[in-house]
């Protein structure tokens, strides 16, 4: 649930503070690595399947009494039994597939490492600029704005907005790009190797997209409520610390603790529901 105090931020404003060459370069490199990692993940399944299918030993032992000319054409006799070797097994071919599989696995690991590194560092640099701009904006407000501004809640709101920006523009953004290219690459490979099966499965894609959209809407509501309750709890704690002498003189410690625990319990319940839904997903 979004209020006027917390408007929805568009994607282009998510990277508003990525206005220097270093940050832009980090996001460009991270995006390329995310695309490479996403395309390599389904590609490795091709070589992994080839290694498994080529390395299966289909050697058969048939008693000599059951052999005939048709089933012993390419067989050798050992200890009174005909040994039928797998004609399709080729050690060189298995070794080549295994080499490609290991190579693609290493490339996937490196691309994933640089993907997370670039997006994490880029998000940290954005957060640093965001904190500076946030504090400057608060300090330069006109005096009339402070009448409706909860000064005690400013540090809590700043920390929550900072964490939200860091999460949205960091590794989660890299995961979105990686998942997108993984879907495109996997769908292309499936259509190439088994287009009939892929075409049948494609009928379920709209249903999956609708389910994911509904799940995302529910998760967004729970996360927003959780942030709101944490902010209210932080405001109660900040006010209590700022007015500690007054609270002690009025013996109001129990009331303040109760107010704080109520909001923390709401936040805990929202976090529990979020974790359960994440686990089920």
Notes on the protein architecture:
The protein is mostly helical and 281 residues long. Helices cover 73% and strands 4% of the residues. The chain has nine helices and three strands. The protein has a three-stranded antiparallel sheet, with no helix packed on it. A hairpin with a 2-residue loop joins strand 2 (75-78) and strand 3 (81-84). The longest helix has 49 residues, at 91-139. The chain is elongated.
* Range of helix content: over 70%
Rg measurement, Å: 30 Å
Low-confidence stretches: 1-5, 66-75, 80-84
Q: Approximately how much beta-strand content do the residues carry?
A: under 5%
Overall mean pLDDT stands at 76
Number of helices: 9
Topology (elements, then pairings):
Layout: H1 11-14, H2 21-54, E1 60-63, E2 75-78, E3 81-84, H3 91-139, H4 154-169, H5 171-193, H6 195-202, H7 205-242, H8 244-249, H9 253-280
Antiparallel strand pairs: 1-3, 2-3
Helix pairs in contact: 2-3, 2-5, 3-4, 4-7, 5-6, 7-9
């Amino acid at each position: 649930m979004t209020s006027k105090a917390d408007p929805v931020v568009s994607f282009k404003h998510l990277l508003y503070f990525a206005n220097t060459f270093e940050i832009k370069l980090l996001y460009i490199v991270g995006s390329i690595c995310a695309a490479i990692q996403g395309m390599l993940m389904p590609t490795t399944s091709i070589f992994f399947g080839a290694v498994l299918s080529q390395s299966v030993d289909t050697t058969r032992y048939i008693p000599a009494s059951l052999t005939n000319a048709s089933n012993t054409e390419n067989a050798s006799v050992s200890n009174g039994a005909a040994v039928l070797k797998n004609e399709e097994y080729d050690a060189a071919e298995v070794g080549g597939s295994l080499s490609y599989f290991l190579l693609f696995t290493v490339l996937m690991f490196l691309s994933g490492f640089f993907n997370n590194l670039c997006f994490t560092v880029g998000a940290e640099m954005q957060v640093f600029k965001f904190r500076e701009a946030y504090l400057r904006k608060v300090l330069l407000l006109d005096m009339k704005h402070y009448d409706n501004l909860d000064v005690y809640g400013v540090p809590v709101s700043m920390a929550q907005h900072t964490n939200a920006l860091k999460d949205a523009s960091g590794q989660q953004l890299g995961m979105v790009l990686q998942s997108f290219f993984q879907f495109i690459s996997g769908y292309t490979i499936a259509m190439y190797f088994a287009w009939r099966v892929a075409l049948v499965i494609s009928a379920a894609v709209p249903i999956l997209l609708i389910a994911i959209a509904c799940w995302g809407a529910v998760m967004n509501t729970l996360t927003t409520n959780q942030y709101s309750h944490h902010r209210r709890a932080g405001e109660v704690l900040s006010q209590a610390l700022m007015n500690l002498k007054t609270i002690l003189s009025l013996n109001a410690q129990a009331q303040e603790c109760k107010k704080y625990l109520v909001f923390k319990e709401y936040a805990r319940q929202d976090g529990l529901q979020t974790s359960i839904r994440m686990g089920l997903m």
